[in-house]
Amino acid sequence: MPASYPGDPAVTDGFELAGVPDAFQRLWTPHRLAYIKGGQEQVTSEQTCPFCRAPHLSDEESLIVHRGTHAFVLLNLFPYNAGHLLVCPYRHVPDYTDVDEAETAEIAALTQTAMRVLRQVSNPSGFNLGMNQGATGGAGIAAHLHQHVVPRWGGDGNFLPIIAQTKAITQTLGEVREQVAAAWPSDGGTPGAGA
User: Fold this and answer.
1) pTM, whole model, 2 decimals?
2) Residues 82-119: tens digit of each pLDDT
3) How far is the C-alpha of 157 from the C-alpha of 45, rounded, in Å?
């Protein structure tokens, strides 16, 4: 007779499937399946590009925290850490060499402001910034340029991503969007000055 574990009857169905319950908790992430299955093939044009679609939705629906003249800032739907932002030009261009001077300047300024805002709302001790160029370079959506702004804290890189390909995120996307958008300066300067 197999060993009985506390709480098993409340969570075990009537099927007699192979396996013995263990002490591990399961972190189910079925929402990632669409991203894993679709990947690059889902973005075939501006009509299927989530970064082109986002500005046509409400800020809450699209997770946009700020709209600039040439670029906008939104939360990553699949964040590495809470507060993982993306800075995107409005134009559907794939490569950093495709953006003009005005777009380049605004992407840089929005990246700096994103760092200041994240420091104010969540006090990270560091950041990862970067643009993955092309599918081979690691871009999840290679067809539309986007700059990653990832806040980092000491100890945020634990064993889960390494052995389980799972990242624990401490806040919902809606909560993070609300905090970052509220702290974003309306004058484009220092957070709190025009917010």
Assistant:
1) 0.73
2) 899 999 999 999 999 999 999 999 999 999 999 999 99
3) 35
